[in-house]
Amino acid sequence: MKKAILVFQTDFTYKEGAVSSMYGVVKSVDRELEIITGTHEIPQYDIWSASYRLYQSMKFWPEGTVFVSVVDPGVGTGRKASVARTSDGYYVVTPDNGSLTHLNKWVGITEIREIDESVNRLKGKDTEEVSIFHGRDLFSYCAARLASGIISFTQVGPEYPVSEIIEYPILEPELKGGRVSGIFEINDPNFGNLWTNIPLSMFKTAGFEFGDYLKVRVWHDGSKVFSEDVLFHKSFGFASKGDPMIYNNELMKISMAVSRGSFCGEHNIGYGSTWAVEFSKK
Amino acid sequence: MKKAILVFQTDFTYKEGAVSSMYGVVKSVDRELEIITGTHEIPQYDIWSASYRLYQSMKFWPEGTVFVSVVDPGVGTGRKASVARTSDGYYVVTPDNGSLTHLNKWVGITEIREIDESVNRLKGKDTEEVSIFHGRDLFSYCAARLASGIISFTQVGPEYPVSEIIEYPILEPELKGGRVSGIFEINDPNFGNLWTNIPLSMFKTAGFEFGDYLKVRVWHDGSKVFSEDVLFHKSFGFASKGDPMIYNNELMKISMAVSRGSFCGEHNIGYGSTWAVEFSKK
Amino acid sequence: MKKAILVFQTDFTYKEGAVSSMYGVVKSVDRELEIITGTHEIPQYDIWSASYRLYQSMKFWPEGTVFVSVVDPGVGTGRKASVARTSDGYYVVTPDNGSLTHLNKWVGITEIREIDESVNRLKGKDTEEVSIFHGRDLFSYCAARLASGIISFTQVGPEYPVSEIIEYPILEPELKGGRVSGIFEINDPNFGNLWTNIPLSMFKTAGFEFGDYLKVRVWHDGSKVFSEDVLFHKSFGFASKGDPMIYNNELMKISMAVSRGSFCGEHNIGYGSTWAVEFSKK
């Protein structure tokens, strides 16, 4: 059987040698392991984004893939260092600090274990007294051992209840009286799009169709910050350059963009539980 | 026979999970496929740059390498999703929106096929109604199948005439009366260099030699924006730090730099058909 | 025996096609070679950082790994293009311009050879007259041949004395009268931390313990720019968000951070021989 692929995501960037050190640890455990960079550009300390990006990409990988997710402002303190197994057969090696929120909610974590540092932490190379780089000394090392088959999932360390996983609250969207309301849950920081927590199916139930202009209202902490009639369509090219639009994103969630522009930037809109959005027919 | 390498270039950046999703699709098609990141930092929507970067790097790869180039502002609209074969045996999987301009002009596209979505589009995983991520659902999936040998080039989809490939105009440089004129065609945005469309051979014909100081004039939309005597030499170190210089770039095209500085930035000069440049002996 | 891994670090970024061209050269030499991106975001022309990053990550890689380090402002001029072998069995393919400083000091270079361009430079593909891209035409090509086993280390080119390696001066820290003094030697530009040249062991000798508040003074060119009592502890989470702290970094060197902030940025402190720092008990 082929060994599992390792997919990394961190907030480390490539500005210094941290990524190289982690990848070296993996290759020193087992030369055959395949490492893929998911991203090292998660916004700094943004555990919510780490959680969302895991959810966003995981299902497109082969079953058994081992994800290493290190956004870890609490490194060296009490938070657990863990390996989770999802209901669909993936592994996530991560500080248990909220980074499993979306997977647990939308995919399901079936088992989680705390990494036993006495066994699954890198030894030698002057690392024993280092407390600030679990990405290298603990997560990469343990993940490599798991992917390589040197240890089984059971040998990661002691199991603990899935109910103890640290989670952020996830808000649910709502359809009421022809109005669909939710929040902007995350952004696409490259293209400046904002993704809501509203599934396309709810738009369908509401009777909204591609080609419709919908009334969109956005509130931040209760203050209205956007109110326009906006085209709902399949893709960006259906709107004129510079115009806002509503579309179905790659995860089947209703999203907003400016065609060849930045919806976040031009309208100064963010994401999180304080950013409410409502769609209705005109 | 070894399976073809996949080399990716996009304008997606690593700021969110898009790259990871694409690479996961490839690995789900065939675990053995090798993925190399060409770049995910093509300037946003800059099809011209995508076209140039393909041309810049392709010949250094083994014959048969499959390039996936996704700079796709028209995703989900009428532009064709295609696979091209070059005269020297490479494949490019790309929206046919201008990204094949330089290859077609300077290398030659010998055959092009439109991807048959009924066969070569990812199925399941809640992707069928997604119209905005052909990079994941169409280009990566089709490229992986081609590189893996699951489909032959013929099975990509129906062929269409090479003459129908979308192309940007490419301007030709000129040598007349001892003056060599052309345009700045592209930049090196990292080091701030500008690359002209003038081959070194034309400088040789004109009698310009390494060590010469040449009169350089640059016009933007007809207005002169730069006029200096500049050293033409082999490499940056021959000029003093901070001085402009003319050199032969990695593609045998005459280029301009500031030694350990930025020619683009310091002289506020860009590239494209509106940026004319002329070189002559003093 | 498995072929050596190639780990790349440059200041090229991914903004254009240079990285892709280099990696293509490697794969054209030998399809089986494994390429890992260490980083392409070394600060521009910053040979000191290149040197430090090699030292920082190397020991975590398998013995025999071939590092390609190209920060090369003097490309095409007189500086030597070399391959060094370290005392612990790694290879570095690099311009000999200072990039071997830390390895030579702290690990040891046991042998160094100048690349023989007549044998180990890429031929064809219109590269012969290119003087500005040794990363592609010389370093990647030679490194691939070495890692592949096509050439032995001896066949790289003629040996020259290790004593001729170009080095920057490295300053030593000092413990005197209960005061530990040194310099900020490098930064972590992502998290805004600064790393001194003072080993944890010197703090132990001085009697400083985790949990202590230490008096920290920083001078720039002799002028005091920082003077505060700062917590010395194991990890960032022991300080309140926004507070400065002293910690033991991943290389067992005393470092300074702002918990979830940027020590460099908030206190406007840099690194290099002009940035002195002193620690003492209150």
What are the key terms here?
Elongation Factor Tu (Ef-tu), domain 3; seven-stranded mixed β-sheet; seven-stranded mixed barrel; Rossmann fold; 22% helix; homotrimer
Summary, kept brief:
The structure is a homotrimer of 282-residue chains. Chain A is an alpha+beta fold.
Q: What is the name of the CATH architecture of the largest domain in chain A?
A: 3-Layer(aba) Sandwich
How much β-strand is present in the residues of chain A?
Answer: 25-35%
Mean pLDDT of chain A: 96
Question: What's the overall geometry of chain A?
Answer: elongated
Structural class of chain A: alpha+beta
First-to-last CA distance of chain A: 57 Å
Number of helices of chain A: 7
**SSE ordering of chain A:** EHEHEEEHEHHEEEEHEEEEHE
E-strand count of chain A: 15
Quaternary assembly:
homotrimer
Largest sheet of chain A: 7 strands, mixed
Major interchain interface with per-chain residue totals: A-B, 39 and 36 residues
Q: Over all CA atoms, what is the radius of gyration of chain A? A: 21 Å
Low-confidence runs of chain A:
none
Strand order of the largest sheet of chain A: 2-1-3-5-4-6-7
CATH topology grouping of the largest domain in chain A: Rossmann fold
